């Protein structure tokens, strides 16, 4: 299929070098050109410019085993500039991963192993889902942080069980996104010496030359962050190799290699032009590239000499892993307890005793904020679960997420508290990178209103099915005097719209315990805990249902003493207590009311229809839902005859209790709403 064409202009002569090297590099280039052309969609320019770098890295530096892409001690390669996915797919195919030439031909097609941007879990050898620019940049830092912790925890003299590097290919777009600045600052501060980035400095973005918007000195910027910075010609193979070698030897600082490259390298009419970025070259231009590279007309041509050279990765990978397995076998004999823990970490098994350590709160307990109850859960569980680590965006005193006695990730070899700084964007991406170790359970905390800063990373965690735990506190207008900028209104509803994210808004301390229990056991996706700043009573479970009902997402907390209920009150979080106060008054008036605690829509919807109908009988159409946030979504539970007590406007600056009263979260308001849906005066 023909896509585009342009007139011929001159382009600088192609570099000369070792013939086999050039043959291999041009094989990468032309696989990308042909795949994009066949799909009539894609980004050929970046694979064409980065082919030299990809070739050197994958054949001379990357320690990996194509037959076992999840070998724990492999080097990681992150293509943060995920639009150039055909570079990665070409390298995966050529080095022997389970990515065939037919898969390459199916680039960007339905159910292929070669989607438009790299997707974790779809393509063997893809380390992370890299599409939104800056996310891979941040994920890679998380991978390096995982290395630091795991190496500190497991390595012993003579036994470098954890010993890998994280290589990342980034673009101008990555450099411009704010998440990258946050991440680079933290990575430099932590001295993540196993982190090596190659920046494709091609001076081109979609709109044209980077001088339209980007005039900073990137080298000075990263030097100021504390990085080791070098500059190379991105098409000079010896220079690239020398820079990578120096970066590996710099173990106290992360490294940035600024590679001056030409987007669309080898294209007579599109090299160094924005048009090479996001559209096929076109049949005529592709043919001109063939002539420039002295390449056969055969589409998807892979020269035998090049393939043989690339496929030496199979023998190398097999030997690297075998050597590591021999080392681990000796390690297991000398350190059997650590070897057992290694298996627990990587199999996702939890150590014994952690559930027994969970706190319990009696009904006589003083009122306690769910953020504080959450902190007590962490204090009890974290010492027994060494795979659990995390921190907050400079809010640990408020989110109660600093665990005393477990050290800090920079100051202590095995520190488990992370000071992310005021960097929610970076925190979200780094958590994903840590979770991608498939050995650690990371958590990150901030105020709920700032979850918006993390949303792209949360979305990707859900997409990749990563076990990440978010602790979002200060969950409503009850924040009070800080005013509407700090009072989340639409945020819980927004989080609920993300597929595969479980949102839990517990009603009291004991529901908080079970929320953490669910989050720690849930390994197929992220979980968000939505917690209060204000103190809440501990519900008397001798009178009302057990908090274990949280495991079903919603449960009957208080049943109508008269028998069959005539009205349902459904609530979450702190509003449960308003519902319970209304329940007492309504019951005293002879109204048969059931109170349903619904901490999680997602978990409830995953239950079978029988259970859901048991909790919310279809025959009971008189319903009232209560939540101190927007009403959006609650209509599915109250139906056309129900009523929602919510806040469909922003907050205000005043004491939290007063705001709740002014906005209608009172016993009187709920009682009135119930009587209204029942048609009673």
What distinguishing features does this structure have?
Rossmann fold, alpha/beta, six-stranded parallel beta sheet, disordered N terminus
Low-pLDDT windows of residues: 1-11
Report how far the terminal alpha carbons are from each other.
Answer: 72 Å
* Helix content percent band: 40-55%
Q: Which class of the largest domain in CATH terms? A: Alpha Beta
Q: Strands across the major sheet, in which order?
A: 9-8-10-11-13-12
What multimeric state do the chains show? single chain
| Largest β sheet strand count, sense and barrel closure | 6 strands, parallel
Question: What would CATH call the architecture of the largest domain?
Answer: 3-Layer(aba) Sandwich
Provide a descriptive summary of the structure in words.
By secondary structure, the protein is α/β, with parallel strands linked by helices. It folds into three domains: 19-317, Thiamin diphosphate (ThDP)-binding fold, Pyr/PP domains (Rossmann fold); 370-530, Thiamin diphosphate (ThDP)-binding fold, Pyr/PP domains (Rossmann fold), CATH 3.40.50.970; 548-678, Rossmann fold, CATH 3.40.50. The chain contains 25 helices and 18 strands. The strands form four sheets. Strands 9-8-10-11-13-12 form a six-stranded parallel sheet, sandwiched between helices. Helix 20 (575-588) links the parallel strand 15 and strand 16 (593-597). Helix 1 (19-39) crosses helix 3 (85-95).
